[in-house]
Amino acid sequence: MSNTSTTKSTSLVCANCGKEGSEVTNTCNKCKSVMYCNAACKKKHRSKHKKQCERRVAELHDEKLFNHTPPLEDCPICMERLPTLGTGKTYMSCCGKIICSGCVHTFRSRATKRKDDVCPFCRTPMPISLEEMVKRLEKRIDLNDALALNNHGCNYAEGQLGLPQNQAKALELWHRAAELGNAAANYAIGNAYLTGDGVEVDEKKAIHYWELAAMRGHVKARHNLGVSEGRAGNLDRALKHLMIAAKGGDSLALQNIKRLYPEGLATKDEYNGAIRSYQEYFDEIKNDQRDEAAAYDARCKYY
Known about the structure:
Herpes Virus-1
């Protein structure tokens, strides 16, 4: 005969009055860790539960912040990992794809005529004017393309593509992109709150948006959080952020860990681990086509 458990320990129990049973369905809205039989019991128990609730909310937040691993993206052409940082890849406003610099360079270097200079993914000819570039971005924005929204926000922030510099418009576009899950937009909003560019300076809000960006894989936001925690004296948290940022290829994060090591604030294993993961990142995104693209860009800058 099966040993089916019917003990009280498996029953739902109201944290306030101790009532058990199926009527105990009202969960704490913040920590989700205690149950009540009704709203009245929840209200009565609030003062007793407050500290435990705040502690559990902080734990849940840190679990999400430090243990969240965003999915890695691959270039849709070569099917190799895209760089995590802002360089080494290009957004195509024709089709909304992100293509690695190696594939873009390979296709463009083969073009001998204007009609051959096309998007590596959808084969649409490259835009030949600023107006055409803006129209393509606006078309993608009409489709709620988060990348287009973020990029156009950057264009307004910097006054690029012939557009007037307009921080209010930039923030509007970034917020729309952030609502659609764009990490770079959250990072940009956080930076705006740090510097007071278009908004009042608010470091707490800056950190909030950097955290959203970091949880979505933004390496620079993760580095900023590490620096912020370090300045606040929270060195354990700072090191956690910096280790993740170094793993994503952020050189400044690695330099900061290097500074912590001789002061005894990072162990030898942590420092060596940061170096290894930093190098592994570059080994993973490296290929011959991308090296050729980088060399070509370097020559163009020199001349």
